[in-house]
Amino acid sequence: MEEARICLLGYPWGYSGRMELNQSMVGDALTRLKRAHGQLAGVIAMIEAGEDCTKVLTQLAAVSKALDRAGFKIVATGLRHCQDSERRGDEPPMSVTELEKLFLALA
């Protein structure tokens, strides 16, 4: 089975680093994203069925929070990966400044 790969590419504009994170590194974030995917499908179904606005917004807030947490988890994993690279004496794939910008893009 091919490993899922998540890549932190130059987004938002101005980033030069590239760090590929495999599924074993971001398993928790991937689990959160899959859960959010299901929640979002539920929100869409609720809207299509004409559900109560309060219920829809409550579920939409849960989806938003799940996405935010997944993003923060990926950035935190990237930071640990870069720190581990530095400890081994290797050049980290991204600078702390680049990771900080990614973190702030999520905030």
Automatic annotation (TrEMBL):
InterPro entries: Metal_Tscrpt_repr, Metal_Tscrpt_repr_sf. The keyword Hydrolase does not apply. Transmembrane segments: none annotated. Keywords: Copper. Belongs to the CsoR family. PANTHER family: TRANSCRIPTIONAL REPRESSOR FRMR (PTHR33677:SF5), TRANSCRIPTIONAL REPRESSOR FRMR-RELATED (PTHR33677). This is Regulator protein FrmR. It comes from Nonomuraea coxensis DSM 45129.
